[in-house]
Specification:
By secondary structure, this protein is an alpha/beta fold. The protein folds into two domains: 13-70 and 321-423, Aspartate Aminotransferase, domain 1 (Alpha-Beta Complex); 80-318, Type I PLP-dependent aspartate aminotransferase-like (Major domain) (Aspartate Aminotransferase, domain 2), CATH 3.40.640.10. 40% of the residues lie in helices and 16% in strands. The protein has helices at 13-23, 66-69, 78-90, 101-114, 125-143, 162-167, 192-198, 222-235, 257-260, 304-318, 322-343, 365-374, 397-426; strands at 45-49, 52-55, 60-63, 118-122, 149-153, 184-187, 203-208, 211-212, 218-219, 238-242, 266-269, 280-284, 349-352, 355-359, 377-378, 380-383, 386-389. A seven-stranded mixed sheet has the order 4-12-11-10-7-5-6, with helices on both faces. Strands 1-2-3-15 form a four-stranded mixed sheet. A four-stranded antiparallel sheet has the order 13-14-17-16, with helices on one face. Strand 10 (238-242), helix 9 (257-260) and strand 11 (266-269) form a beta-alpha-beta unit. Helix 4 packs parallel to helix 10 (304-318) and helix 11 runs parallel beside helix 13. The longest helix is centred in the last third of the chain and has 30 residues, at 397-426. It binds pyridoxal-5'-phosphate. Pyridoxal-5'-phosphate binds at residues 124-126, 129, 158-159, 209, 213, 242, 244-245, 270-271, 280.
Length: 427
């Protein structure tokens, strides 16, 4: 029913204006109702388009975080909005107890394009990593005499579920809500001998991120990952690759394992898979496909609406020269960041495709992120001395140029503040 039809007289222009203001007054909503989950800066975002996002005050920002890489096609891409809208009018949710066409389509397309045999959909990367641990333990029950121990690596971060958290490095979370899930151990990353020594009869899998994300974009060496794969085959344990960040074209190929020339038994996907809506996946190959009915489930797993988003994203990534373009843009971003880092005397640049981490000469990443925001640029700082860049995969060269310009200003801004601060102390 039209709101205005309840009124006896048509609304005046003033009424309409007031009503519009009321309906668009985003900035006065208090945030005390939110549980404190993560420290957030003041801006309240209300609109996004491509690499740009606007706050309630109308301030535009260039977004080189894109929700930590989740918005792989940028903000509100037409292809995704249309797919979601069409699906929303057609069927939102058949219920987890029934098939829906979207889930079947996405499952087939995802398995065919990643050379996997089966998939299960989740709502978050963390949940998919929990699922990977369950699947590995099921495999251990079936084929390895009940072996259940998962080996992960130093500085890992697989998410916040109890399984994913147990596989992550203790320092990642301020509170791990002890006691932890038993059956996990960690070895140093990029250290093959340490892994070899750690595998025992109770071990069922090694789980790692091919490029560590939260640790500050730290890649496994090619030699290491190949070696891990070989070791897994020799010792008869599973290789689980967490590609929640590196998958879905982020690194210039659909999965980053392709670049390393390895084949995991189990792979997790998340972030970019939904292009900004919550969708994650657990993929498996061969004998690792061993769940039986009623072993895994969730009300929204394979939700028709979310799967329509996944299909739109996947079709876009695989269409035309999209991934070649990601590699090209990645090279352009790498070159630009290298020059910028040299000019400002900063440290090492790591990554590939459109996933980059820049280690700074000092622990001033938070100050830089703040200064960048004042320059209208959104970035992440996974570590106190590291900036992370995860722009839209279809980011333009001119947006990359603009980002470099704004980041340069942010560097100068923080430098100036530091000099003033030092002078203040000296006086
Ligand atoms: C983000 C991330 C996760 C967790 O995914 P959520 O969707 O935040 O639960 C797990 N592993 C890696 C490598 C990630 O980058």
């Amino acid at each position: 029913m039209n709101l205005f039809s309840l009124r006896r007289t048509p609304p005046s222009l003033d009424d309409l204006t007031a009503e519009y203001r009321q309906s668009t007054r985003h900035d006065s909503v208090p945030h005390d109702y939110l549980m404190p989950a993560i420290e957030r800066p003041a801006p309240v975002f209300v609109r996004g388009q491509g690499s740009r996002v606007w706050d309630a005050q109308g301030q535009a920002y260039l977004d080189f975080s894109q929700g930590g890489g989740s918005n792989c096609l940028g903000h509100s891409p037409g292809v995704l909005a249309r797919a979601l809208s069409d699906q929303a009018y057609g069927l939102l949710n058949a219920g987890v107890g029934f098939h829906n066409q979207g889930q079947l389509n996405l499952a087939q397309r995802l398995c065919e394009t990643t050379a996997c045999d089966q998939v299960h959909f989740f709502n978050s990367g963390s949940e998919a990593c929990d699922g990977a641990i369950k699947l590995a333990r099921k495999w251990g029950q079936l084929y390895r005499g009940g072996a259940c121990r998962i080996i992960s690596v130093s500085n890992a971060c697989h998410g916040s579920g109890f399984g994913a958290m147990a596989a992550s490095t203790p320092g990642v979370f301020d509170n791990r809500f002890e006691p932890q899930l038993p059956g996990f151990s960690q070895v140093p990353f990029n250290d093959l001998a340490a892994l070899h020594a750690a595998v025992d009869a109770k071990t069922v899998a090694i789980m790692l991120e091919p490029i560590q994300n939260a640790a500050g974009v730290i890649p496994a060496s090619g030699h290491y990952l190949k070696g891990v794969e070989r070791l897994c085959r020799e010792l008869g344990i599973l290789l689980i690759l967490d590609e929640v960040q590196t998958g879905m074209g982020r690194c210039g190929t659909l999965l980053v394992e392709q670049q390393y020339g390895v084949r995991a038994d189990i792979i997790t996907l998340g972030k970019g898979l939904g292009g900004g809506v919550p969708l994650a996946a657990l993929l498996a190959r061969g004998r690792a496909c061993c769940f039986a009915p009623a072993e895994i489930g969730g009300s929204h797993h394979g939700n028709a609406l979310m799967c329509s988003a996944g299909l739109a994203v996947l079709d876009t990534l695989l269409g035309g020269h999209f991934l070649a373009h990601v590699r090209e843009s990645g090279q352009y971003l790498q070159d630009g960041l290298t020059r910028l880092a040299q000019r400002h005397d900063q440290g090492e640049l790591r990554g590939t495709g459109l996933l980059w981490g820049l280690t700074l000469g000092d622990e001033w990443a938070d100050a830089l992120v703040k200064a960048a925001r004042q320059e209208g640029l959104l970035l992440d700082a996974p570590k106190a001395d590291c900036l992370r860049f995860t722009p839209a995969l279809n980011v333009s060269k001119s947006d990359i140029d603009e980002m470099l310009l704004r980041l340069g200003h942010a560097f100068s801004r923080v430098r100036t503040a530091q000099v003033h601060c030092r002078k203040g102390i000296a006086v």
